[in-house]
Amino acid sequence: xxxxxxxxxxxxxxxxxxxxxxxxxxxxxxxxxxxxxxxxxxxxxxxxxxxxxxxxxxxxxxxxxxxxxxxxxxxxxxxxxxxxxxxxxxxxxxxxxxxxxxxxxxxxxxxxxxxxxxxxxxxxxxxxxxxxxxxxxxxxxxxxxxxxxxxxxxxxxxxxxxxxxxxxxxxxxxxxxxxxxxxxxxxxxxxxxxxxxxxxxxxxxxxxxxxxxxxxxxxxxxxxxxxxxxxxxxxxxxxxxxxxxxxxxxxxxxxxxxxxxxxxxxxxxxxxxxxxxxxxxxxxxxxxxxxxxxxxxxxxxxxxxxxxxxxxxxxxxxxxxxxxxxxxxxxxxxxxxxxxxxxxxxxxxxxxxxxxxxxxxxxxxxxxxxxxxxxxxxxxxxxxxxxxxxxxxxxxxxxxxxxxxxxxxxxxxxxxxxxxxxxxxxxxxxxxxxxxxxxxxxxxxxxxxxxxxxxxxxxxxxxxxxxxxxxxxxxxxxxxxxxxxxxxxxxxxxxxxxxxxxxxxxxxxxxxxxxxxxxxxxxxxxxxxxxxxxxxxxxxxxxxxx
Length: 546
Description:
By secondary structure, this protein is of the alpha/beta class. It is built from 18 helices and 17 strands. It has a five-stranded parallel β-sheet with strand order 2-1-3-4-5, sandwiched between helices. It has a five-stranded parallel β-sheet with strand order 7-6-8-9-10, sandwiched between helices. The chain has a five-stranded mixed β-sheet with strand order 12-13-11-16-17, with helices on both faces. α1 (3-34) runs antiparallel to α10 and α2 (38-57) runs antiparallel to α3. GO terms for molecular function: diguanylate cyclase activity.
């Protein structure tokens, strides 16, 4: 269902519930008239304010016109003594108009700009969905690069000429092209012109050339190609550039936790943000937030300002007391975007106030911008600076959480410890630059080979932890063995010298341990056994049927 269809459905649901909502407000007003007190007045004001926000969002101009007047008058009474009879009668008239308003004809729709169809945020493709073309007329060179990239888990296709590549490209476009500049069927000038067009259409082009002189590089720059490599291209550097260019390190879409006591607003803003590729958890009660954070780690919080029991400012202050979210962006939604409210929400630790009548595309743009900043903050605090994988603390947090979930719902999670064999010798022989190259290559291989739901972290030094939730034992063993095998075939080059590195691993499954700590000890024991047995292998507990 498209966003426009979802919006229309939400609007119909809101209109169906609107008469009852108006009657509820009138009932509160009647109770307030009989026994005037600040608590009941606040409740009436809050309901009117919420109706104003809903009317703005769904484009109910007639209702909004009446509610605007009601909100203004009620707001003036919040910190004042009980009003005189003329004021009460004036409010009676407005409430009567609200109840009698039949909203003739169709409500005017909220502003949905044409740009809505072109999302300003596009989540990264799943890693296995990226397709790479190698256009190289030297069959041996093309085959070697193809083999090496496939070891990293890329989908790669080799072409001996540009014409045959175009036939496939026109049917199923590639995401990235590795282009040799000396081909039998196209001139260099024509290839650069083609590269320019590919880049304009968001297909990345990497040049692979035997020439590295200034003139050739300048032509490549003017053609806007993404990268330039002089043959022979180093595989690990090529892989790193591919990951950077295709933004493959982004494993998950940006995540937003939204809280609004009106379910219609939760549904509307959730639908709007999801239509632009964001992951949204929408809640209608502030009390649901802390339990939700056990499973959902948002990049951004959005809270409604006026909610019963717990308002948006109190909720923002509570989030700021959680160490994990002291720097996470918080936006507050309100129909009242006065300067006084803006100052109040900033003093409460929030970042900004957004009006509920903000145009959808502008609202989405602000949310994405703030959520991306939140994601970057979380990422820098939780990632290993060299490999980009989770750091020691965070991979342990992820592993423990997955273990607890697996035990609770009776599913399976695999926890694996990997260690690079003879890594000290690699550092001693090729220096720390050579060692870092190996660590990066393994990190890229893991990012490319595993699912988006899996977790990978640098446990320490040359040791890595992998967490594979909801994966049965035979499949997990096969997957991890394939990673080990692929890594053993990767050729590293340092100062003109080629070398390879192997891996040892210890695997454990959640149903083998009564406690999480037992799993860590058993995985480490299996890793030590793999080393003792000669390295370059996996060790795990045999199944009962083995």
